[in-house]
Design a protein that fits this description.
The chain is mainly alpha-helical and about 700 residues long. The chain has 29 helices and four strands. Helices cover about 75% and strands about 0% of the residues.
Length: about 700
């Protein structure tokens, strides 16, 4: 009995120490001066936003409303048709923007409070994309259900996508950046699935995708009243949650000891987030980055009380979305096309993400254990892999499917569709992306980096689109050479941004740059689709990542460029290997760090731009292939680089062949197939994080 008593005493003696070790460090209480400064910054930021909103709203009124201002508040039925339309465009749209933006801001604060992650939001965790995909699927296959139960459908999609993200991050104990990476992967996968559906059902989904761009313009008060009711319900539902959420923000263990039903509170918050996001998406489409921007402003101001955080986030979100909506309405006559507010928020996403990263760089955040494939160094016979890629090229050109089924064809062309040039273009593109992936992973010492994930490929694509649109205004022809220059400028600008941020923030944060630039790319694509400009129709096919335009007269130039850049990368292996040990070590060993870094940046920009010009921006090839090479025994850089080049060529040839024939007579872009394959691989890679940590 004494032994038991002693054991019990020892347990109680050590219990506080154990609990203390589990409890995160408490932030220091703000002093009165700090609190006053926070309040001053809050009012300055809020006042600045409010001033911009008032100015833009006044500009809209001066342009469109030619009656007394008091008539804006009259019942719509008392106005003539033109005044009624203008009233709904100005007033009802503004009310919807205020309420939708406020709800998304409050939802993002709830998510951040739930997972203790300042980067969480409805956008970064894939909640809105899941709701949008669910509505698209039901609209195509069960249209009656979409008409009468769109809110329920969106809720199920939002809940499913959020559940998938949480399931991927749960094993890492909701590591901050792993959670956001899981959201990134789910976003790209669901977007790839949506692209497949849009390709197969182009006519049926045309109106749906226009709506999904996020139009806020209203023709009735229905959405305003629905969102107002949702706001009241959210306020009532959040009131009893304020105290338990405040306790949970520090430590779940202590919250449980104080009687807080942690799991129940989490379930309620998840349901609230899913319901509110589903309602906003079902009514106005996908609105990205407004919630994250509002929550980021709240975090930057250091507001700690959950109630004040929710009110501040609602206010900032409302003003941000209303300002974006006003800007879109003001720009429509200039652009000569309707501009969706959702696409505008996507375009503003990259600057917002960069601002967020710079604001969070001094914050303490848990270390990310980046997932890697543990490869054992073995003898790699590159000549075998070279013959394997050659065999793939010939097989992809010979094994085809036509109206008679699968067959072997020795003809190199079917009508105007060249098989061998398309396979060669895919191989060259895969080679360049894989080499760029190896170089950038080694340079940044980040195994989760790649030209696609860091936004380099999207930057090149944006540069090409910008050159195509604006170079003729400067009297320059948008030929291959000028487009190459504009694409190279975009890729190099993103690379410089990444390297600049790498000196200020942890390597994990760099991955979020790709999230913002991808959102900008998505917003630009929505505007291209809605422009109706016949010059841009070909851009849409190219942006999907297809080899359809590959021609025998140009493919050999692409192959030559790929081989030349590959040889240049082999020449820089030795200084790169030393540079991968750190700038200080490299200088001590006699490496000229700055010239080598600049040369690497130029080489990666050339590789990314050439591949993007050939078949458009692709996803995950540059991330996936270097890890495959490592898992096959190519641990050292001098072996990893050539093996990754061969594997990248092989992967892209397979993706292109599958896209052409697996669903014949329909054709899927190689970029979509690569995104699906790479996304599944990325999910598996994220699941390896806990094992790597252990």
């Amino acid at each position: 009995m004494s032994t038991s008593s002693t054991s019990t005493d020892n347990h109680h003696k050590h219990a506080p120490t154990s609990m203390q070790s589990q409890k995160p460090p408490q932030p220091p209480k703000p002093k009165a001066a700090d609190t006053a400064a926070i309040h001053w910054q809050l009012w300055v930021m809020f006042g600045g936003l409010l001033l911009l909103v008032v100015a833009s709203s006044w500009a809209l009124l001066a342009r469109d409303w030619h009656r007394p201002l008091t008539d804006l508040l009259l019942p719509s039925m008392q106005l003539n048709m033109d005044s009624m339309v203008t009233q709904l465009t100005l007033v009802a749209t503004s009310v919807v923007a205020l309420l939708a933006g406020g709800l998304l801001g409050a939802v993002s604060i709830l998510l951040q409070q739930l997972v203790k992650n300042p980067l969480a939001s409805d956008t970064t965790l894939g909640v809105g994309v899941g709701a949008q995909l669910a509505i698209l699927v039901v609209s195509l296959f069960l249209p009656s259900l979409a008409i009468h139960g769109g809110m329920v459908v969106a809720f199920i999609g939002a809940l499913a996508s959020m559940g998938l993200v949480f399931a991927l991050a749960a094993a890492s104990r909701f590591n901050a950046l792993i959670l956001v990476l899981a959201g990134l992967v789910v976003n790209i996968l669901l977007a790839a699935l949506a692209n497949v559906l849009v390709l197969f059902f182009a006519q049926q989904s045309n109106g749906m995708m226009s709506w999904a761009a996020g139009f806020l313009t209203q023709n009735s008060w229905h959405t305003s009243m629905l969102l107002a009711l949702a706001t009241v319900v959210l306020v009532v539902a959040c009131l009893p949650l304020l105290k338990p959420l405040g306790m949970m923000s520090l430590d779940d263990f202590q919250a449980k000891r104080l009687g807080v039903p942690v799991q129940g509170i989490r379930a309620i918050v998840v349901l609230l987030v899913a319901v509110v996001t589903a309602l906003v998406v079902s009514e106005v489409g996908l609105i990205g980055f407004v919630g994250l921007g509002a929550a980021s402003m709240v975090n930057a101001l250091g507001i700690s009380a959950i109630g004040k955080r929710l009110v501040a986030a609602f206010s900032f979100g409302a003003l941000l979305l209303l300002l974006t909506s006003n800007a879109a309405l003001l720009l429509e006559p200039i652009a000569g096309m309707p501009i969706p507010a959702g696409a505008m928020t996507g375009v503003l996403g990259a600057p917002l993400i960069i601002w967020l990263i710079l604001r969070q760089r001094h914050d303490r955040i848990e270390t990310v254990v980046t997932p890697t494939i543990n490869g054992t160094q073995t003898s790699v016979r590159l000549w075998r892999w070279g013959f394997a890629v050659m065999g793939l090229l010939f097989a992809a050109s010979l094994v085809v499917q036509d109206v008679q089924g699968w067959t072997l064809s020795t003809e190199w062309a079917l009508t105007e569709q060249y098989r061998l040039p398309r396979s060669l273009s895919a191989a060259a593109t895969g080679l360049m992306l894989a080499v760029a992936g190896v170089l950038i992973q080694t340079l940044t010492r980040n195994p989760m980096a790649s030209p696609e994930v860091l936004g380099v490929s999207s930057g090149a694509a944006l540069g090409v689109i910008g050159g195509f649109l604006f170079l003729p205004m400067l009297g320059l022809s948008a030929g291959a050479g000028t487009l190459l220059g504009s694409g190279l400028t975009g890729a190099f600008a993103v690379l410089l941004l990444v390297i600049w941020l790498a000196r200020k923030v942890s390597s994990g944060y760099l991955l979020l740059v790709g999230v913002g630039i991808a959102a900008m790319m998505d917003g630009v694509m929505h505007m291209v689709k809605l422009s109706g400009d016949p010059r841009l129709e070909a851009m849409l096919s190219w942006l999907s990542g297809t080899t359809y335009s590959a021609m025998p007269s140009t493919v050999w130039y692409l192959m030559g460029i790929a081989l030349l850049l590959f040889m240049m990368s082999l020449l820089i292996i030795k200084p790169l290997r030393i540079l991968g040990l750190g700038a200080g070590v490299a200088r001590n060993l006699g490496v000229a760090v700055s010239p080598v870094t600049v040369a690497l940046l130029i080489l990666v920009a050339l590789l990314s731009t050439a591949s993007t010009l050939a078949v458009g921006p692709l996803s995950f090839v540059g991330l996936m292939v270097p890890h495959l090479a490592t898992s096959m025994g190519a641990v050292k850089l001098k072996r990893q680089l050539p093996l990754a080049a061969l594997l990248g060529a092989g992967v892209m040839v397979i993706a292109d062949w599958l896209g052409r024939y697996v669903m014949f007579p329909y054709e899927l872009p190689a970029g979509t197939i690569a995104a699906l394959i790479g996304g599944a691989y990325f999910l598996w890679l994220i699941r390896k994080v806990p094992m790597a940590a252990r």
